[in-house]
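This part of the workshop introduces the protein records we will be handling. A record pairs a protein's sequence with a compact description of its fold. Comparing a sequence with its tokens is the quickest way to learn the format. To make this concrete, we reproduce a full record directly below:
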Amino acid sequence: MTIIEAIKKILKNEKRELTSKEIYEKIEEKQLYRFGAKDPKAIVNGIIRKHCFGIDFPTASPVKYFRVVKQSGHVNYYLLYDNEADSSVKIDITLKSNELLPEEKLQKAYNEHKNNIKQQLLDEILNSNPAFFEQLVVDLLVKMGYGYDKSSGIVVGSPNDGGIDGIINEDKLGLDKIYLQAKRFNNNNSIGRPELQRFVGAMQNVQKGVFITTSKFTKQAIDYANKQQQKNLKLIDGEMLSELMVKYEVGVMSIKYFNAYKIDKDYFFEN
């Protein structure tokens, strides 16, 4: 019997939620598995969390056998996971549990670091001048793969730009273009429908447009963009902008990588 099979058997027979510590003690009591590790309770906890629905981190298994049903203090209680009955259940799992695996702590720290960098990016943009932001959005779109090469992006922002701040030429002859509008607002000033209407009006015969802001779009603006039939209009708010800048490394640089490891079961099975 494997550790997973032993855990599943305990939860099935007990028919109640148990902590990982209680599951381990039941396995020992019923002698379902002989542990050789120095800290077998940690082994049981690790296997449960790696196979737990709603818990995701780099080394987590895509196969789920267990689910968190409640949390008391920093201790989680688990039951067997029913794929059909439980898949639609929304589970609020906090990351304050003292049962967190090192991989989960690493993921949590990375998410906090990334969110901090994203906020710093928006702060830097808001402290820059409008011309810099217009160049930034052109650089970002080119870095994302739009345009025929690195020189296909053009900044055209000026007092008489007609509402167009940048152009991405998707071919060398400029037959297919993407128009860009960049608005550098703080988070308290949302972009409304009128701004989008002016942008669409300035697009004239161009079919593709991207409106980028450091703030947010109102619901009316989002509905207007989604209902466009003649134009392909995409909206990028501050959250998505900072996310894309990190992903494509525009305005940021990687300074160090950390690898997360898991046991290669195939290697041990083959040998």
User: Anything to note?
Assistant: The beta strands are 52-53, 66-72, 75-80, 153-155, 166-169, 177-183, 208-213, 232-236. The chain has a mean pLDDT of 88.
